[in-house]
């Protein structure tokens, strides 16, 4: 079963919700965060507090966490942020163009996270866990939700549809034109949702593995100190799998490992079918490559045996091209490879290569939700940077005090 718990959310007053809401801390660089946080109420002043310190500041220094706490306290006073009188759950709708998805914001069980009832598909990095664990403990709050998914349940859909028929708590368009709308459940809806979710056999982390891992570590530390409070759960929004949208996560490689452009193209042609292309691939099994000012389509052919991981295009690209031909043995640590979320389009890839920032770019076909779930069910780990979920949840709209 999946346990979903109401919580007393810390949230902005509706009039300032759009000013407070901020993109997730880990999808922007420090410079990008500084450029976005022109409003003093932007939650980026909390989630990326180094933007308010000199540019040479180490983002993991004591001063950054101290400034995060200072900014959080100031935001609570000045926005203001208020704590709900009663525990509740929320419907959170994201609308981007014609795409729409509605999830439930609540606290989810860290015990179920530990027991893999809430399933993972990504390996976390200790340094990133350290950062968000310290940030969470410094604020005594989880301020950015994990993105969960589950196999769609009609009983949940019905309750959510009824919630969304009422006037919302928040409703605004972010600068990227994504519409964010949040409803607070009535007491009867809250109880019905908790019961309906209890019949869902498992949940899956779609995005936010480091946030979940950090919440678990913070809970362990607080428990050891006798300070459990309300920290036995982690803040998340769970969306049905038939509404989520996965975009490609593309690759840039900075050099050709001593090969010429013609030489690389010839070597790839010995392994796979290569034809002229026009940008993003249109089917699984194809990868688009931008090299020497031209797009090419690499076709891998029928998927190999060996499970869901082996059949991923990102795995086949890594094993068939990036490692043997370009020397990228470990994409997690190799500084010669960069990753570009699919929301930036193939134009970002062509610009990078044409400007000399990279030597070659690869655009992939998106991983499917069925593939993600199959890999999670196998307790397997996807290659790094395999999925880019869009649209993104916003930080600061509902926070969980621990």
Question: Can you put this structure into words, describing what you see?
Answer:
The protein has 402 residues and is α+β, with helices and mostly antiparallel strands. It has 2 domains: 4-245 and 390-401, no CATH class; 249-365, no CATH class. The protein has helices spanning 17-20, 30-36, 44-47, 62-78, 110-114, 126-139, 154-163, 187-197, 209-224, 261-271, 308-311, 313-326, 345-354, 369-377; strands at 4-5, 9-12, 81-83, 90-96, 99-109, 118-119, 141-142, 146-150, 170-173, 179-184, 203-207, 233-240, 246-247, 249-253, 273-276, 286-291, 294-299, 337-341, 360-364, 388-389, 399-401. Strands 1, 4, 5, 6, 8, 9, 10, 11 and 12 form a 9-stranded mixed β-sheet that branches. Strands 15-17-16-19-14-18 form a 6-stranded antiparallel β-sheet, sandwiched between helices. Strands 3-2-21-7 form a 4-stranded antiparallel β-sheet. Strand 4 and strand 5 form a beta hairpin. Helix 6 (126-139) packs across helix 9. The chain is globular, with a radius of gyration of 22 Å. The model has no long low-confidence stretch (mean pLDDT 95).
């Amino acid at each position: 079963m999946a346990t979903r718990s109401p919580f007393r959310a810390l949230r902005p007053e509706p009039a300032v919700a759009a000013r407070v809401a901020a993109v997730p801390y880990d999808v922007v660089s420090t410079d990008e965060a500084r450029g976005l946080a022109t409003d003093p109420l932007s939650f980026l002043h909390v989630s990326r507090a180094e933007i308010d310190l000199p540019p040479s500041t180490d983002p993991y220094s004591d001063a950054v966490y101290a400034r995060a706490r200072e900014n959080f306290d100031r935001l609570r006073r000045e926005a203001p942020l208020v704590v709900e009188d009663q525990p509740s759950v929320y419907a959170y709708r994201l609308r981007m163009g014609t795409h729409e998805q509605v999830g439930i914001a609540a606290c989810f069980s860290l015990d179920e996270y530990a027991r893999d009832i809430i399933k993972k598909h990504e390996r976390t990095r200790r340094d990133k866990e350290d950062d968000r664990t310290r940030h969470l403990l410094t604020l005594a709050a989880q301020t950015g939700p994990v993105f969960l998914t589950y196999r769609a349940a009609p009983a949940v859909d019905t309750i959510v549809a009824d919630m969304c028929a009422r006037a919302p708590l928040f409703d605004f368009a972010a600068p990227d034109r994504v519409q964010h709308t949040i409803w607070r459940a009535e007491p009867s809806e809250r109880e019905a949702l908790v019961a309906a979710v209890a019949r869902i056999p498992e949940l899956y982390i779609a995005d936010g593995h480091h946030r979940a891992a950090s919440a678990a570590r913070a809970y362990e530390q607080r428990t050891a100190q006798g300070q459990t409070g309300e920290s036995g759960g982690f803040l998340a929004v769970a969306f049905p799998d038939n509404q989520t949208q996965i975009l490609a996560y593309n690759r840039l490689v900075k050099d050709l490992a001593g090969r010429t452009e013609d030489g690389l193209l010839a070597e790839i042609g010995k392994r796979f079918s290569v034809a002229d292309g026009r940008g993003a691939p249109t089917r699984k099994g194809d990868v688009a490559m931008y090299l020497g000012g031209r797009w090419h389509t690499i076709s891998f052919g029928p998927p190999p045996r060996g499970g869901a991981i082996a059949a991923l295009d990102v795995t086949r690209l890594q094993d068939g091209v990036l490692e043997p031909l370009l020397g990228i043995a470990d994409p997690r640590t190799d500084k010669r490879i960069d990753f570009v979320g699919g929301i930036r389009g193939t134009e970002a890839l062509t610009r990078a290569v044409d400007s000399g920032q990279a030597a070659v770019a690869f655009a992939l076909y998106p991983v499917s939700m069925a593939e993600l779930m199959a890999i999670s069910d196998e307790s397997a780990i996807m290659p790094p940077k395999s999925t880019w979920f869009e649209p993104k949840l916003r930080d600061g709209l509902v926070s969980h005090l621990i």
